[in-house]
Design a protein that fits this description.
NDH-1 is composed of 14 different subunits. Subunits NuoA, H, J, K, L, M, N constitute the membrane sector of the complex. Keywords: Cell membrane, Membrane, NAD, Oxidoreductase, Quinone, Translocase, Transmembrane, Transmembrane helix, Transport. It comes from Arachnia propionica. There is one protein chain. This protein is an all-alpha fold. It has a single domain (3-113), classed as NADH:ubiquinone/plastoquinone oxidoreductase, chain 3 (Methane Monooxygenase Hydroxylase, Chain G, domain 1, Up-down Bundle), CATH 1.20.58.1610. The chain has 4 helices and no strands. The chain has helices at residues 5-28, 35-38, 59-83, 85-113. Helix 3 (59-83) packs antiparallel against helix 4.
Length: 119
């Protein structure tokens, strides 16, 4: 049980901080309640009623998000390679070139299909 005492202490400390913060915000915070305070806020524009289906995003939005994740993961793989570049030798150069060529082929395919065009 001894190894868990610091973890339990941190959980108790965090819970205590949350409870004390919530109580103090109610006691010390201003109590001016009005309709505008509890109304939805959409960047200064009056909120519009949502459609029955909850509103739909275009599919292109999700495609761009997935492409961002893919190219972001590429950078995550390139960073360790760049750190150990001198130690890998010819095997490291060939493997990273194959990786970059694969990603560039995918990028070219997406660009050619119009996946990166914002209409």
């Amino acid at each position: 049980m001894n190894p868990y005492i610091p973890i339990i202490g941190m959980v108790v400390l965090a819970t205590g901080f949350v409870v004390v913060s919530m109580i103090l915000s109610v006691l010390v915070g201003p109590g001016r309640y009005n309709r505008a305070k509890y109304d939805q806020y959409e960047c200064g524009i009056q909120p519009t009623p949502q459609p029955v289906g909850g509103g739909r995003f275009p599919v292109k939005y999700y495609v761009i998000a997935m492409l961002f994740i893919i190219f972001d993961i590429e950078i995550v793989f390139l960073y360790p390679w760049a750190i150990t570049y001198n130690q890998l030798g010819i095997f490291g150069i060939v493997s990273i070139l194959l990786f970059i060529v694969t990603v560039l082929v995918a990028y070219y395919y997406v660009k050619r299909r119009g996946g990166l065009d914002w209409d």
